[in-house]
Amino acid sequence: MRHGFVKAAAVTPPIKVADPKYNAGQIIKRMEEAFVKGAKIIVFPELCITGYTCNDLFLQELLLRGAREALKQIKERTEGHDALVFVGLPFEKDHKLYNVAAVLQNGEVLAFIPKSFIPNYAEFYEARYFTPGKRELEQVWFDGEEIPFGTNILFEAEEIDGLTVGCEICEDFWVADPPSTAHALAGATVMVNLSASNETVGKDKYRDMLVTSASARLLCAYVYASAGEGESSQDLVFGGHNIIAENGTILKEAKRFVSETVYADIDVHRLQMERRRMTTFIKKQEEFYLVIPFELKKEETGLERIYNPMPFVPSDHMQREKRCEEILAIQSYGLKKRYEHTGSRTAVIGVSGGLDSTLALLVTARAFDLLGKERKDIVSVTMPCFGTTGRTYENACKLAKTLGTTLREVDIKEAVTVHFKDIGQDMENHDVTYENGQARERTQVIMDIANKECGLVIGTGDMSELALGWATYNGDHMSMYAVNAGVPKTLVRHLVQYYADTCSEDALKQVLLDVLDTPVSPELLPPVDGAISQKTEDLVGPYELHDFFLYYMLRCGFEPSKIFRIARTSFKGLYDEETIRKWMRIFYRRFFAQQFKRSCLPDGPKVGSVAVSPRGDLRMPSDASAALWMAEVEKL
User: Fold this and answer.
1) For residues 153 and 146, is the Cβ–Cβ distance under 8 A?
2) Most buried residue, 59, 407, 411, 451, by CB count within 10 Å?
3) What is the 3-state secondary structure (H, E, C) of 342-382?
4) In the chain, where the domains are located
5) Strand (E) positions, 247-399?
6) Active-site residue, 54 included
7) Could you give the CA distance from residue 240 to residue 224 in angstroms, rounded to a whole number?
8) How far is CA 512 from CA 97, 109, 502, 523, in A?
């Protein structure tokens, strides 16, 4: 349970209609399997002790008595186990029948939660038997004990900060104002739903949508367990469509028609962070709630959850293509608006033959097409210097010409040499002054050309470089509109690849593919035997690791130890623990030390849920201390 993880299970046992004894045996079998797997929240379907499809048999005293006896048997088998177990049955109170969830833990019934909304339309006929549950708290007797009965009951784990569980039953979830809304506003971070939702064509997609949207809107996890094998097929078929979702994402989903148990590791601390971040999520408790504490043993959750090693890049090909097109549109429409506002005539962009400047040039071409402006008004400037290689130079020139822009070459070797002489910089001393002197000269050149041509300088630096401060202050750090400022390096590659795959010009495709095959480098050090000698990822670390750290730090609020834990799994077989530790130290040190560069960034469009603009997502002091984060990294 370290780092706020808790394992949940949505279980569909095979049952027999109106046979509580048999059903109890199946429930106990699956429940004990979940205990062994380490599940701490275990959810069974609606009315699973008797079966949902008993119809008029629900009115039979013998069935109701059998259900109560079966519940006693299930309750006894929870003794010695700390998991919170939700199981459905019909329950009589004051001569009225209720569709309830019994909440069990460690040999006790903690509460009965009645269903609030009783459907009586289409194939549903529950009002013939069941009475709607009330929010007001009452007490009922069961097995010699007085048990809380009502809808407004939550269950709070004292050992995991933020783990509070609310419950609703099937139809409750489909209505306009479901109980889960009030539960969430009263503090529940995990919702469970005991359901018996029959299958019709396309209904599974609608269920997915409801579960994911509820978990997103309520900033919660949602554990949905539905009836399946064994229910009567007289008129309906039940598929056991179990779903576990968190904050708008499905973590696990059962195959239908196989009575499958699904497990997922819910991240309660992330849900807490989301609620802290969303200032419009305001906790309020308009009605009385009973909060029942329950105990969980402090033990490590066996983490099975898979985290995408490239969180900015969708793994699904079709979704990735859609994402790329959307990002290109955001970038180009942002730039289009800037030109409409300023009335600038040209765009000036330094092209290096690298990925970032390639993407910026592609975006600028799109923006000019949207404006109805001729691409010849895009001035592509190549500025060879001491580290420029033939490959990148040729690719820069080919790209500029293929896109129909105006190519201009300004060799800056002489200017930089004079500058170094002026400041007393030894040409053989390849230090940071040697590198940054070239970067600032390039920026001066394109800024002055922009003034001369009534244009804007288009920035090329990406979000990953900005996060690490891998940019020369007032060099490539500066522009008049930074189109790549919201795009992480791992996604830049896919955007260029997408453009190559979808463009209709073979010559453009070939140069883009060669750019993709070129090592990432600022080319500020002399080449060795004509090849790039300065590879960025050898110096600052793999961008896929840094983007991973960046996403889970800023988007999810994870601490270093938690990021390290999930990185070990996500990058298993690719990076060993020591390598991850090494670059994590670099990441946190640079992220904090280089904030001053981000504090004065030029304008640029936000494209995703993570951004580093000082005017938007990251309002951070330039002199904030990294001590707390670095201390935790050193303990790893």
Assistant:
1) no
2) 407
3) HCCCEEEEECCCCHHHHHHHHHHHHHHHHHCCCHHHEEEEE
4) 2-294, 317-635
5) 249-253, 262-267, 290-294, 346-350, 378-382
6) no
7) 10
8) 69, 65, 11, 19
Tokens of 560: 């270093």
Looking at residue 627, the DSSP 8-state letter turns out to be H
Catalytic residue among 7, 40, 46, 523: 46
Which tokens go with 497?
A: 């690849």
Distance in angstroms (rounded) separating the CA atoms of residues 25 and 20: 9
Q: How far is CA 412 from CA 17, 312, 439, 520, 529, in A?
A: 84, 36, 10, 21, 21
End-to-end CA distance of the chain: 18
> Three-class SS of residue 602?
coil
190-224 burial, b if ≥16 CB within 10 A, otherwise e? bbbbbbbbbbeeeebeebbebbbebbbebbbbbbb
Residue 557's contacts (CB-CB under 8 Å, 6 or more residues apart) are: 269, 270, 273, 276, 277
pLDDT tens per residue, range 151-201 = 999 999 988 889 999 999 999 999 999 999 999 999 999 999 999 999 999
Q: Is 245 exposed, middle or buried (0-12, 13-18, 19+ CB in 10 A)?
A: buried
Tell me which amino acid residue 594 is: Q
Active site residue: 48, 54, 167, 170, which one?
170
- The reply to whether the predicted model has a pTM over 0.70 is yes
The per-residue b/e assignment along 309-333, b for 16 or more CB within 10 angstroms, e otherwise, is bbbbbbeeeeebbebbeebbebbbe
When the candidates are 3.40.50.11260, 3.40.1190.10, 3.60.110.10, 3.20.20.100, the CATH number that belongs to 2-294 is 3.60.110.10
Average pLDDT of 198-214?
94
pLDDT tens for 585-635 read: 999 999 999 999 999 999 999 999 999 999 989 999 999 999 999 999 999
Q: Which of 7, 75, 93, 115 is catalytic?
A: 115
- The alpha helices in 178-251, defined as continuous H runs, are 179-185, 203-217
46 is catalytic: yes
Task: Give the residue among 479, 514, 482 at the shortest CA–CA distance from 496.
Answer: 514
Query: Which pLDDT score, from 0 to 100, does residue 390 have?
Result: 87
- In the three-class reduction of DSSP (H, G, I as helix; E, B as strand; rest coil), residue 111 is classed as strand
Residue 503 annotated in active site: no
Rg of the chain taking only CA atoms, in angstroms:
30
CATH architecture of 317-635: 3-Layer(aba) Sandwich (3.40)
Distance CA 92, CA 29 (A): 26
